[in-house]
Amino acid sequence: MLFSFESCNKKGTPAEDKPISDLSIYNLPSEWTNQNGQNIEMKDLRGKVLVMVMIYTSCKAACPRLVADMRNIEKRLPENIKENVELVLISIDPETDTPKRLKEFAIANKMDSGQWEFLRSTEENTREFAAVLAVNYKKISPLDFSHSNIISIFNSEGELVFQQEGLGVNSDATVQKITEEAAKLN
Length: 186
Description:
The chain is α+β, with helices and mostly antiparallel strands. The protein is about 25% helix and about 25% strand. The chain contains 4 helices and 9 strands; from the N terminus they run βββαβαβαββββα. The longest helix has 15 residues, at about 60-75. It starts with about 30 loop residues before the first strand and ends with a helix.
């Protein structure tokens, strides 16, 4: 299934109306709810470089480190490309992570500017998206999950271009790839 999405770039001229690549996450028909209670589809994020990570807000082990890694990446991005980048955190615990809880988490972690997007969906949609990112997760107790620690970079067309695996790792290559992809949009 192909979707066509028209938008305007920052100069106000129509963006190139081209079909979405077969490799794009924008082909996924799943609906998501953000921290503001708005329903979106992945294709609504088209046109920006996406930096994505899967977490859950009640996590006390790996997720705080992933959140710190995302904030560190955001801090290191050159100012001239920040408007071309969206930082997206996707919950693997949609039952607990309501939009209200995601909003509180965003504020508590100083991730509440317009550049940050927190998303949740159904268990089925979350599993499908995790498979796309090669993120494995498993509920190991009522409040705890075991999960992969991967930050994924998608170009403006929703194609995976880079992944950083691990916690607290050197993010130089990640920042460089985000900067390269975002500079293409200027």
